[in-house]
Amino acid sequence: MLSVFLFVFVRYARGKGPGPGARRLLDLPSGLSAGELSERLMAAGLARSGSALAWYLRLTRTHAVPGPHLLRDDLSPRELAQRLTRSPGRAFVKVTIPEGWQHRQIAERLAELEVCPAPDFGKAVFDPALLRELHLRGASSEGFLFPATYELQVDSEPATVVRLLVAEARKRLVRVAQREPGAVERLAKSDGFDEHDIVTLASIVEREAADPAEHPLIASVFFNRLHDPTFRPLRSLESDPTAGYGCLVEPGLAPSCAGFRGQITPALLRDPRNRYNTYRHPGLPPGPISNPGEHALMAVLAPASTDYLYFVASGQGHHTFSKTFAEHRNAITR
Questions:
Q1: Are strands 318-322 and 310-315 parallel, antiparallel or unpaired?
Q2: What is the spatial distance between Cα 41 and Cα 39, in angstroms, rounded to a whole number?
Q3: Residues 34, 147 within the same domain
Q4: pTM exceeding the 0.85 threshold for the entire prediction
Q5: Tally of domains within the chain
Q6: Closest-CA residue to 94 (of 148, 147, 146, 151)
Q7: Are residues 166 and 200 in the same domain?
Q8: Which end of the chain, N or C, is less surrounded by CB atoms within 10 Å?
Q9: Looking at residue 148, what is its pLDDT?
Q10: In this predicted model, what pLDDT tens digit does every residue of 191-203 receive, in sequence order?
Q11: Are residue 98 and residue 207 in the same domain, yes or no?
Q12: Is the distance from CB of 17 to CB of 80 less than 8 angstroms?
């Protein structure tokens, strides 16, 4: 009799759900009983039989972790229970985050691979309590969501994913600093840079240069603009991607961001109400505008030694660099 029960139990636990694999986002309150939880799962189209699922949840003592869960309608009762309890035994997926991606792009990939819902990851990126816990002084963890390949569990808590990415960023920052001894201390003394500032400038370098070989040259241009007393406006980085990022995260502050679809316009670069507009605000923007990799971080710690103050795209991801504005205009014409 026991063997028959075990056979039926295992077969039910491994049976596929009722649907073709469509994703379902379920936000669960705390304290749900097995019956209440099965009713919600049935209503969301995630179970074939509410009573059978309630029976299974009671036997396995499944207590759902409150909050959002990213599920699929073809999951077996066992897989559902693993996700709902955030069991260490649930599936892993490989997630690759490319250099220069912003938090919204990362959020979309995480949702696509069923790691966590995109809106909830976005909330975790800007969560003040989590930022304090991680000792990040910016308005978000942007810049510290390190681009790499990770093995992440499906239906993870967004804050857990942010913690993992930030920990990896800190580990890589240490590794980069070890390759250029004394560079962090020199930047602190010469420019007042801390960890946040290094990552902010590296994030701009990452967005400006498609070819990592140009990262040190791009970094040298920005440092020259910060230091050269003849450059006008003084200490202006004049980076197009920073203004675009302002429209991404603070669209309501600048009228020029209305209808922004990624194209940088002259009106956008003239608007001082965009706090990330480095044509109108000297120095660094309020925070990182992307998540830089090791090449961009190294470029900030060890920029090329040049007199360049300007650069313009020359095609196929490369740039022409110039020392004077006259040379720069000629490069633009060419």
A1: antiparallel
A2: 5
A3: no
A4: yes
A5: 3
A6: 151
A7: no
A8: N
A9: 98
A10: 999 999 999 999 9
A11: no
A12: yes
Which phi-psi region, left, alpha or beta, contains residue 79 (left: φ > 0; alpha: ψ -120 to 50)?
A: alpha
Considering the domain architecture, whether residues 325 and 272 belong to the same structural domain is answered as yes
Asked if 221 and 311 touch (Cβ cutoff 8 Å), the reply is yes
pLDDT above 70 covers a percentage of the chain that reads 97
Give residue-wise pLDDT tens across range 141-198: 999 999 999 999 999 999 999 999 999 999 999 999 999 999 999 999 999 999 999 9
Domain of 154 in residue numbering reads as 92-173
Check whether 5 has a pLDDT greater than 80: no
Q: Rounded CA gap, 131 and 124, in Å?
A: 9
259-275 per-residue burial string, b: 16 or more CB within 10 A, e: under 16 = ebeeeeeeebbebeebb
The pLDDT value recorded for residue 325 is 83
Same-domain check for residues 139 and 204: no
Q: Look at residue 178 and tell me if it is in a domain.
A: no
Does residue 181 belong to any structural domain of this protein? no
